[in-house]
């Protein structure tokens, strides 16, 4: 009897259970909305706490290790081309869905929508790109400005890559120990993700109400139809082009996709996704860099 092992419930199933329990709690016990919000926000903050301390050293190590390889420039070019092409395609897809198919029509966004008028006229292209370059690294770290931090990480990785091999190895060795420690913290935080999901859903149902949520059904349905096109059409085509087993990859990160789906943010799953991809055998330096 002592050798009998308890069967663990898969994280994806835990998230689905939390989803339904959160909906029920929000509907039947809406008076605890502030507590539900606390649970959701606490989980988001725990994940956010780890993003920059993990991503910064990951990019530094990735650039430093890939820099000396012959395919670095090719990898850099492919990365920027991929993100430009895919982002443009995704933007076009959702603009088409929202404008031509009428998703979101009749949804009252109140006075908040008025503040968006004219916002694009105040954006200058040169200032837009200058904001990518951090004038003060510590301010960027304090503000959590990920793009400027990534730019610094790329340059730092380049600098480390130019060091003598002994100094470079010493720096990378210490940095990888830091990364391993952050991953250990991440493992513990991910265990709390069902609690966070419970809080998200319970708070939304408690404060918004089922009737209003149903009223947004067309908008939500349209949004997730767009996600479906991405997941079932666009990304599989990309996977075929790059000879990646998309089905197996999707299965391996299914629980993280569920977490992103419920939380409404990809940044929440970025740290565990990086770790998962490495475990699946993908090139560590390339994964971290891209």
Would you give an account of this structure?
The chain crosses the membrane at residues 42-68, 80-101, 140-160, 181-201, 221-244, 256-274. It is found in: Membrane. It is a multi-pass membrane protein. This is L-cystine uptake protein TcyP. This protein has a single domain, classed as Proton glutamate symport protein, CATH 1.10.3860. The protein is globular. It has 290 residues and is mostly helical. The protein has 14 helices and no strands. The model has no long low-confidence stretch (mean pLDDT 82).
Number of domains: 1
Instruction: Give the number of helices.
Output: 14
Into which percentage range does the β-strand content fall?
under 5%
Can you tell me the CATH superfamily? Sodium:dicarboxylate symporter
Separation, N- and C-terminal Cα atoms? 48 Å
Residue-averaged pLDDT: 82
- Which CATH class is shown? Mainly Alpha
Shape estimate: globular
Briefly note the structural class of the backbone: mainly alpha
CATH fold-level topology: Proton glutamate symport protein
Number of β-strand runs:
0
Helix content: over 70%
* CATH architecture classification: Orthogonal Bundle
Secondary-structure element pattern, one letter each: HHHHHHHHHHHHHH
Radius of gyration: 22 Å
Protein name: L-cystine uptake protein TcyP
InterPro entries: Na-dicarboxylate_symporter, Na:dicarbo_symporter_sf
Membrane topology: Multi-pass membrane protein
GO molecular function: L-cystine transmembrane transporter activity; symporter activity
């Amino acid at each position: 009897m002592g050798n009998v092992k308890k069967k663990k419930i898969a994280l994806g199933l835990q998230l689905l259970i939390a989803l339904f329990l959160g909906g029920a709690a929000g509907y039947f016990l809406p008076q605890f909305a502030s507590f539900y919000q606390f649970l959701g926000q606490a989980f988001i903050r725990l994940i956010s706490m780890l993003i920059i301390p993990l991503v910064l050293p990951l990019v530094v190590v990735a650039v430093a290790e890939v820099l000396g390889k012959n395919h670095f420039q090719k990898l850099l070019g492919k990365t920027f081309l991929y993100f430009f092409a895919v982002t443009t395609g995704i933007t076009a897809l959702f603009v088409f869905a929202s404008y031509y198919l009428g998703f979101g029509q009749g949804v009252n966004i109140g006075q908040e929508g008025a503040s968006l008028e004219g916002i694009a006229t105040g954006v200058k292209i040169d200032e837009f790109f200058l904001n990518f370059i951090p004038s003060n690294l510590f301010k960027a770290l304090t503000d959590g400005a990920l793009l400027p931090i990534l730019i610094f990480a790329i340059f730092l990785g380049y600098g480390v890559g130019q060091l003598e091999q002994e100094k470079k190895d010493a720096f990378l060795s210490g940095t990888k120990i830091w990364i391993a420690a952050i991953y250990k913290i991440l493992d513990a935080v991910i265990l709390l993700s069902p609690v966070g999901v419970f809080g998200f859903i319970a708070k939304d149902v408690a404060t918004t109400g089922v009737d209003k949520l149903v009223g947004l059904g067309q908008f939500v349905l349209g949004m997730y139809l767009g996600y479906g096109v991405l997941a079932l059409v666009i990304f599989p085509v990309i996977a075929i082009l790059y000879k990646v087993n998309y089905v197996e990859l999707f299965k391996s990160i299914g629980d993280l996709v569920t977490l992103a789906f419920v939380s409404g943010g990809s940044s929440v799953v970025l740290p565990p996704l990086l770790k998962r991809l490495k475990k699946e055998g993908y090139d560590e330096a390339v994964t971290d860099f891209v």
